[in-house]
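Quick one, probably user error.
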């Protein structure tokens, strides 16, 4: 009976007990499964990938597949489910997205030619970090496999994208190494992180390593260096790249041991799971976190660089509004630059120079972008060729992309002979490039153009891949098969005429081959030389010696042609893989061209200007604009100036009502600074910017229930990170401090934080509702007060969105609450309570008992009874003794009466 309800773990027990009675096929499956524990094995049987036992039960549940069973030996069955081979990628995507790993065990020989059991081998183990298929990947984001290691107090990080060939490493050390690791993992967001097994001791350094991984929201995979390996990590890297030492990659012997070990772990993991991917990793790039602006996870999140705070999508992010690239390669490069702003003024200016070329020449920019639209993803096309997964359509797309390269090179050289010198060969070095980097590989182009069919199928074993005239042997086989088919087509008319059977048909199916079909009423007319082959419900099918001979010739020619065509295609794919290094260099040049022209297009469309960069630490903007808000809101955006420096206006205290634009103003200064340091022009009328080493943001109110942190604890944790790590060259954005606790606690904390940042010397924009902080301008030399200008019209306030000098003398919370739709009765009661509290002029103590009583007791609103608070206040005034300064009290009472 079928064992469809076998419990988890029972399958393995059944298999183990019946080892001697397993079918040969299932013994083969069992051997594969033992080599890949914890991995779902998809076992190719004909046109399906099948799964057995626990794998089948799991996958059927996860993907809602029908669960059947199969006999594995006399009297024993196991659960089974399967998916069609042509649709396997769709199912793989769902399994990988849910955190599973899958091994594909493919048939390595034609079942018709195999002697005995068909040989099967695992061709690849698919995990989140080893994907190469386009439909499983985000086109404009890298898919990194990361490895982290620890040697002493050093942390190594390696990142490899097998879909593009990117391979980079860094090493972190010091007291903040684990925090830096968390930040780097958050920056790169690898799909999978290889880490040493977690120790049981909660205080161990390995546990701290895993904590950093978890805090970065990444997915860890337990993996460690093989202790029995006879080769050191450095030797493994040298072997991979075919070099005697790693000096050419910036790694002196004995330096960065943790980084080298992490890179070796990536190679070991790929060797076990995705062997073909190793051939695509041709080089190694060493980088240092000191080369880039530090952006902690809170800053990236609060500035919404790549993901929206609202729903986690890309809509409404900085990346979504600045990405004008035409290619997937350019989109990925732009994303990397956005997350790694430069620190070197020379490198920033060099990028601005490149953008300026395309900004100044609209024809060059337009024609170049038009050509780039025809360029496919060369990096991932090359990767699929190197890993043996590319089909003929991939190679055709690669050919058409290479055809655009000579035109792009000629366009650049014709527009300006030195234009190519503006393109940056490496993201971390000063721009310098020769025209040879736009390598169109003429020999490979010529080969692919001669060999590939104009419209090949997606499958590589269906024929139709190779163009006629490329192979004389293939042409002969095709001609033989075509002539035979033509004879068979003519046979139907000939036999109808000869036998007088008008309903006679010549047909074909994959089981019985070619046949002559005669309906039963006409069987008496069948000639003696017809030999019965098959009986159907309404007809008989026959063969003739001549038809059998032609059938053998046709099918034999087709089979040999399909085999030869596949061999020719594989040779083409290997020829592409052999040129991977040159192809990737061209892809990088095209990506940089794409980003620079996209920056220029962005500037031309939205009136961005080239910033003046300096090391002086001054941030000076005239009519600065928020790059996202101005493109997404329907109303005209109101620009504003900013002046930040280390001598006079180091800390700006910004007060004013909610919804008036304080948060927009703060963020736009940070985003403009960041845009400038990735090489883009910026949304302003004029910009003079000093390079910052870090950008910090403390914005909004949110809790972190997963780690048990309240809103206020999150706020204080982020503030502590700023106070502990900000330098005099940092830019700090604070949007409310102390709002998560009592008024006096919050005000005290905000005051102390502002003083500390002033003392630290970092440039700070501090938005607050505590207008009492305006007093700091009179106490500290480098604090300046600004406010959001509003216009009051009776009970209404109008937001002018302008930043003006001076601090606000009160909050507008009740007016904003009215705009939000709070019921009128609640609004009026809030006014009463506010007025009563304002009678307490002392902020350093709690309200007195009589004050609290006044708050609890509703206040009458009529001015015509003597109990109204305004009337009461007027009665207590001694007008004859009032000084001119005290006359302001009359103005306050007038406002309260209104």
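Nope, works fine. Designed sequence:
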């Amino acid at each position: 009976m079928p064992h469809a309800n076998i419990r988890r773990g029972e399958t393995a027990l059944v298999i183990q007990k019946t080892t001697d009675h397993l079918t040969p096929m299932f013994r083969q499956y069992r051997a594969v499964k033992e080599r890949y524990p914890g991995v779902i094995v998809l076992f190719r049987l004909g046109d399906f990938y099948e799964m057995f036992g626990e794998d089948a039960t799991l996958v059927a549940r996860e993907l809602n597949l029908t669960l059947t069973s199969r006999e594995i030996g006399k009297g024993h069955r196991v659960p089974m489910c399967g998916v069609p081979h042509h649709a396997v990628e769709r199912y793989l995507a769902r399994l990988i997205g849910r955190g599973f790993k899958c091994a594909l065990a493919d048939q390595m020989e034609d079942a018709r030619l195999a002697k005995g059991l068909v040989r099967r081998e695992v061709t690849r183990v698919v995990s989140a970090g080893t994907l190469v298929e386009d439909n499983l990947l985000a086109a404009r984001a890298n898919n990194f496999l990361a490895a982290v290691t620890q040697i002493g107090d050093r942390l190594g990080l390696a990142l490899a994208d097998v879909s593009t060939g990117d391979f980079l490493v860094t090493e972190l050390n010091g007291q903040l190494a684990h925090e830096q690791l968390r930040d780097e993992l958050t920056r790169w967001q690898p799909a999978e992180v290889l880490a040493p097994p977690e120790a049981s001791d909660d205080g161990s350094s390995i546990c701290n390593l895993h904590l950093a991984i978890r805090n970065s929201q990444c997915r860890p995979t337990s993996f460690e260096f093989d202790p029995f390996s006879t080769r050191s990590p450095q030797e493994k890297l040298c072997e991979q790249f075919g070099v005697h030492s790693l000096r050419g990659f910036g790694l002196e012997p004995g330096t960065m041991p943790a980084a080298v070990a992490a890179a070796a772990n990536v190679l070991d993991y790929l060797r076990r799971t995705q062997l073909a991917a190793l051939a695509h990793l041709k080089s190694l790039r060493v980088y240092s976190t000191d080369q880039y602006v530090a952006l902690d996870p809170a800053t990236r999140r609060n500035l919404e660089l790549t993901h929206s705070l609202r729903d986690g999508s890309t809509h409404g992010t900085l990346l979504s509004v600045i990405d004008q690239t035409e290619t997937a390669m350019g989109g990925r490069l732009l994303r990397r630059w956005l997350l790694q702003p430069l620190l070197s003024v020379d490198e920033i200016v060099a990028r601005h120079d490149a953008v300026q070329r395309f900004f100044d020449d609209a024809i060059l920019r337009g024609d170049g972008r038009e050509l780039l639209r025809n360029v496919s993803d060369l990096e991932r096309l090359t990767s699929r060729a190197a890993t043996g997964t590319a089909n003929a359509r991939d190679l055709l797309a690669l050919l058409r992309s290479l055809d655009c390269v000579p035109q792009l090179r000629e366009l650049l050289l014709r527009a300006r002979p030195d234009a190519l010198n503006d393109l940056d060969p490496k993201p971390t070095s000063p721009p310098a490039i020769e025209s040879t980097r736009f390598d169109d590989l003429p020999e490979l182009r010529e080969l692919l153009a001669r060999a590939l069919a104009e419209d090949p199928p997606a499958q590589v074993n269906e024929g139709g891949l190779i163009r006629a005239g490329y192979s004389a042997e293939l042409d002969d086989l095709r001609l033989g098969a075509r002539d035979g088919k033509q004879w068979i087509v003519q046979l139907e008319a000939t036999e109808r005429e000869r036998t007088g059977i008008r309903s006679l048909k010549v047909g074909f199916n994959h089981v019985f081959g070619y046949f002559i079909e005669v309906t039963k009423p006409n069987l008496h007319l069948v000639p003696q030389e017809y030999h019965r082959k098959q009986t159907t419900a309404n007809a008989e099918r026959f063969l003739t010696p001549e038809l059998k001979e032609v059938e053998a010739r046709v099918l034999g020619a087709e089979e040999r042609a399909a085999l030869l065509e596949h061999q020719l295609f594989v040779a083409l794919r290997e020829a592409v893989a052999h040129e991977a290094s040159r192809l990737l260099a061209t892809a990088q040049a095209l990506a940089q061209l794409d980003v620079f022209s996209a920056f220029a297009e962005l500037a031309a469309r939205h009136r961005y200007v080239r910033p003046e960069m300096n090391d002086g630490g001054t941030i000076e903007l005239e009519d600065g604009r928020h790059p996202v808000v101005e493109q997404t809101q329907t109303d005209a955006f109101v620009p504003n100036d900013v002046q930040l420096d280390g001598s006079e206006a180091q800390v700006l205290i910004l007060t004013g009502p909610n919804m008036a634009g304080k948060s927009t103003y703060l963020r736009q200064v940070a985003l403009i600074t960041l845009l400038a340091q990735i090489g883009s022009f910026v949304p302003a009328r004029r910009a003079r910017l000093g390079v910052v080493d870090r950008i910090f943001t403390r914005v909004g109110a949110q809790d972190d229930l997963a780690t048990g942190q309240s809103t206020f604890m999150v706020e204080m944790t982020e503030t502590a990170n700023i106070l502990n790590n900000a330098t005099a060259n940092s830019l700090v954005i604070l949007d409310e401090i102390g709002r998560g606790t009592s008024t006096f606690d919050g005000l005290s904390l905000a005051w102390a934080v502002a003083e500390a940042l002033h003392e630290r010397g970092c440039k700070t924009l501090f938005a607050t509702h505590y207008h009492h902080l305006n007093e700091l301008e009179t106490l500290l030399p480098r604090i300046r007060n600004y406010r959001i200008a509003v216009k009051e019209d009776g009970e209404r306030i109008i937001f002018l969105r302008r930043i003006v000098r001076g601090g606000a003398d009160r909050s507008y919370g009740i007016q904003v609450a009215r705009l939000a739709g709070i019921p009128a009765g609640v609004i009026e009661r809030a006014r009463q309570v506010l007025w009563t509290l304002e009678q307490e002029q002392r902020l350093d103590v709690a309200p007195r008992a009589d004050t609290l009583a006044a708050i609890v007791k509703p206040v009458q609103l009529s001015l015509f009874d003597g109990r109204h608070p305004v009337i009461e206040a007027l009665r207590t005034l001694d007008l004859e003794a009032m000084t001119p300064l005290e006359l302001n009290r009359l103005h306050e009472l007038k406002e309260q009466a209104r």
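Confidence is low (pLDDT under 50) at residues 1-18, 424-435, 841-848, 854-866.
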